[in-house]
Amino acid sequence: MSKTALWVCLLMGLAVACTQFGSSKARRLHQEAFVFDAHIHMINRQFHHGGDIADRLSTGQVDLPRLKEGGVDAFLFSLFVPEEYYPPRFETRHTLRLMDLALEQISRHQALVQIAFSASDIEAINRQGKMAVILDLEGGFDLDGDPAILRSLYRLGLRVAQLPAHNWASEFADSCCAPPKWNGLNERGRVLVKEMNRIGMLINLSHASDETMEQTIDLSSDPVVATHHGLRSLVDIPRNIPDRLLKKLAAKGGVIGFHLGSEFHSRAFFEWRTRRRGRTFWDTTAVGDREKNLSITAIDKRVAPRFPMVGQAAPEAIKISVEEWVGVVDRAIQLVGEDHVALGSDLDGGPTLPRGMRDARDLPMLTEAMLDRGYSEQRIRKVLGENLLRVFRHVTER
Length: 398
Description:
Layout: H1 3-11, H2 24-32, E1 36-41, H3 43-49, H4 64-69, E2 74-80, H5 91-108, E3 113-115, H6 119-127, E4 131-138, H7 147-156, E5 160-162, H8 187-199, E6 202-204, H9 210-219, E7 225-229, H10 243-251, E8 255-258, H11 262-265, H12 267-277, H13 289-292, H14 296-303, H15 322-336, E9 341-343, H16 364-372, H17 377-396
Parallel strand pairs: 1-2, 2-4, 3-4, 4-5, 5-6, 7-8, 8-9
Helix pairs in contact: 2-16, 7-8, 15-16
């Protein structure tokens, strides 16, 4: 959407209808393009509060109807295990509970969505007019990194897994946002990387420390992804990737998905949010001893209020614009080329969306902004989904 059209929407108080102002070319291109979002949260909300992924919801940022309206053809369906489950070692149990609910709800809506295990599955599912779901884990599946547990999850359908345990140091890999224990990967972590390569599971390095990221890229025989990230050269925070590691990731054929959150791409917004909350958005230092003796039910109750995670309520004027988000993507393209960038929205995972964006329905605004910037249709198609599909095909169809 052009800046003029966006301001018309806002001045008229019609933000909910902004996508209708998009050009016919943008609407056509977005509809025809293969749109593959690298990071979407969904099942945690349903686990803690009930309901169904196919319910059209009035709050939060994502559900199946809104994804369909947003033109999404495939997405990484994130099973998120928060840090509160780690001290009493409930991370594997919670992973299995989320997996169980996800499988049940997806199977209930085969007319809308279907699980894909490979890139060819995605294409076959799309030919039937359905959205393809790729099961993805964010957080620790097992803090000890037991390959047998990973293989069991693979058999259940998991095809993408975050190597670090979110913002927590595991017993095999350091996170971006916790004191280091291993200066990257230890031997157990290196074994796990090779096992993920062997079985055909895509490695996600979002939330990894720089050392974990670099060592994994060097070790992995497959390309890896960072599904929801920003650039540290623009906003210097540990959750963003430094230019040298982005170049290394791309040189091995990998892809970075760009987060929609204003806090990732605007230093001013990040500082505003940090002042408002009194801590950084990744801070888990309060998690620890108090959780060790809690039951899993007590932890469920403790974490439930945070879902869905929709970022910080903020004045529209201080959020980034959709055009600024494209500017971040453009900076990455200048560094590593158009074959290594993707969309990783993190909807319902905490992003403060750009101005004028309500939720998944407004993803076509990204296509409009890329056209406004002068991107070719080929480049836009790559960013929207073709790049991520290429990497997923490489890993799952050897």
